[in-house]
TrEMBL record:
Species name: Rubrivivax gelatinosus (strain NBRC 100245 / IL144)
Superkingdom as given in the UniProt entry: Bacteria
Protein name: Peptidase M15C family protein
Protein keywords: Membrane, Transmembrane, Transmembrane helix
Residue ranges crossing the lipid bilayer per the database entry: 6-26
Length: 283
């Protein structure tokens, strides 16, 4: 049994079934019940019933004490009626309480965790982050994924974006690249305008105000816009980003970059350079 309350309920049910069977099968119980009901209503008991025609079964029921055979029959009937509920209650177990899965915070800088604990503009019940899988072959190894080098105001919105994307669509979004050094930006600029339009010291990545994001699905890192699932996921991500005041690269007309988000609000650079020109809107 799961609790004393259940045991008491079963016993009460068994007693009720036995009482009903006794009233049905035993005339003496019927007479006593009628007498008790008459006393409650303060009415005289009804006159005795007319003699019934002789009957073997009726004579056995009227006999005192009750014959062992009928007593055994009554007990077996009550046991059969009560067996179903008793078996159900004995086999029933309350559902085990499952504790919520711990937040996956491996790979997140302490500053990012502290910032995520601050009040948010949008409720974010779960903080989850982890480092992405290794970049595809041919990608530079000097990519910076240090969350602490992102501008705090931007980092706050970025964590909120990732939380909402997971809660609303089930996406596992990871940081592909955050802060970008001048040397890294120069390397990308040398690849031509198909890669970036921002020269060194003119990218918001260098101020910690931009990030490139990717998705992890079934153990694979997804960032190709040619994949229909990834394309739709980036569009959902862009819709959420704009509601948080972020700029989404998928809305650019010059060089569309679906995985890019940035913040153009006032902020101080994460790593103040000697001279910071006006930041470009391009990646």
């Amino acid at each position: 049994m799961s609790s004393p309350v259940v045991l008491a309920a079963v016993l009460l049910y068994f007693a009720f079934v036995s009482l009903v069977l006794g009233l049905i099968m035993l005339p003496s119980w019927q007479d006593r019940a009628a007498d008790l009901l008459a006393r409650v209503r303060r009415r005289p008991p009804p006159p005795p019933a007319a003699p019934r025609p002789p009957n073997v079964l009726q004579a056995a029921l009227d006999a005192e004490p009750l014959s062992p055979r009928l007593g055994l029959l009554a007990l077996l009937t009550a046991a059969v009626v009560a067996a179903g509920p008793i078996t159900t209650l004995m086999l029933h177990e309350p559902p085990a309480e499952t504790a919520p899965a711990p937040a996956a915070t491996a790979g997140v800088a302490p500053a990012a965790l502290a910032d995520a604990a601050a009040p948010r503009a949008v409720p974010t019940p779960t903080l989850w982050m982890r480092e992405p899988l290794p970049p595809p072959a041919g990608t530079s190894t000097d990519i910076d994924r240090d969350w602490a080098r992102l501008q705090p105001q931007f980092r706050h919105r970025l964590l909120t974006l990732l939380d909402i994307a997971r809660e609303r669509h089930g996406y596992e979004v990871v940081l592909l690249e955050g802060y970008r050094s001048p040397a890294r930006q120069a390397q990308l600029a040398a690849l031509g305008p198909a890669t970036t339009l921002a020269t060194p010291e003119r990218s918001r990545h260098q101020a910690g105000l931009a990030a490139d994001l990717a998705f992890v699905r079934e153990g694979r890192l997804l960032l190709s816009e040619r994949d229909p699932w990834t394309l739709q996921a980036y569009r959902h991500l862009g819709e959420i980003a704009t509601t948080l005041g972020l700029q989404w690269g998928g809305e650019w007309s010059s060089l569309r970059d679906l995985g890019h988000v940035e913040w153009r609000g006032p902020a101080r650079p994460a790593e103040p350079p000697a001279a910071v020109p006006v930041l470009a809107s391009a990646r």
